[in-house]
Fold Transcriptional regulator.
Amino acid sequence: MIGIIGPEDSIRLVQEVASGEQRSAELTARAYARPEQAPELARELDELCQVLLFTGRIPHAFAVAAGGLRAEIDFVPHAGIDLYRTLSRILLATGGRLPRVSVDTIEADVVRETYHDIETEPPTEILPIADSSGLLFSGLDEITAYHRQRYESGQVDACLTCLGTVHRDLREQGVPVWRVEHTRTSVRDALRRAWLAADVRQSRATQIAVMMIELTEPAGRGHDPYQVERQRLRLREALLEHAERMRGRLGSIDDRTLLITTTRGTVESAIARHRAGHASLLALRGVDVAHTVGFGAGTTIAAAEDNARKALALGRGSGDTHVVFPDGEIYSSRQSPVKQRLRETAPGVLRVSEQLRLGPLSTRRLIEALHQMDPNQVTARGLADAYGVEARSARRLLNSLRAAGFAEEVGLHVSTGAGRPQTVYRVAMQRLFEAIGGGA
């Protein structure tokens, strides 16, 4: 399920586009009067939806700043095509003359490129509202004031805003203003990204995960054989109950190392409960034998077990429980403000990362993303969504794979909407696995 958060008019547009794609039943929406309400609405949808899609960058940034969301989050960007439409409307209304304007929300490079495409001098008054660190203003009143001051000082003749609230406030103050609204193409592209992200998230949730239990003393102590056997039976019963709660299967490696095989989704749910301060499946109950627990996730049982061993090594001596994910990210039961990551030292991964001119952990993450895709039909847009980067960065990754002999171009994919055709690559996953030693 995809959660949509935005003003009522934007939500209506998203629902219309989804209906045209025959997928409106996959959406659930919450409308706000002001973007500051977005975090509260996001929390309402967080338990229901795999992906939350905001209709603008500002509500998305408010939700990111508030934190605490489990769902994937994204927003519908205001792209060049949205600005083109607004400029066309202005030209029609003014008889072919573009006024000097101030612009917010849209990235400066996009504004300049759009104006250059129509061979017109671009605006100089472009207000950035956010960067990678978050919002660059404390309230929407600042954006309204920015436009009003430039109009009243004579620097501009009119204002362009992507924000419904700012548009309304400026009109009430008598300032000439045009609202840059999303086109159906922009919304359709964002929805397709969200649907793909939901599919990837579902695929990731079904990845293999292993809970590895290392007994730091033998199961069964003392000289009375009856008492020893009773202790062993209690341990097994407790582990079987835990495996049932995790919807997993109990197994053993040796007398002191046992494991429960389950799914990544189960482990991530346990992490979410632990973060919220509730009892979770990260800890064993009813086990009176000294032990250490570690969790690992991976695309194969071998990879998940390897990550679980790394988690055990991190937990020995501290008593903390760790979870090691395929990209090297670590979750620890002892909360830390610094996100932990493992350094990648596998020789095969280091060798491939050198060929790709990519960091070892980024290489591991790339392989993880490719594993979720059809290797015969990889596009930059698909890899961007699976890997979590912009399309241009995904194109560079695919070019690196091709240059290293791990991918080849096999054709073009032409979208029914706007945008240039996408090059389709075939990735030699078997060759890639062999190059890293089969441990992806």
Notes: The chain is about 45% helix and 20% strand. The chain has a mean pLDDT of 85. Residues 238 and 285 are 7 Å apart (CA to CA). The two ends are 30 Å apart (CA to CA).
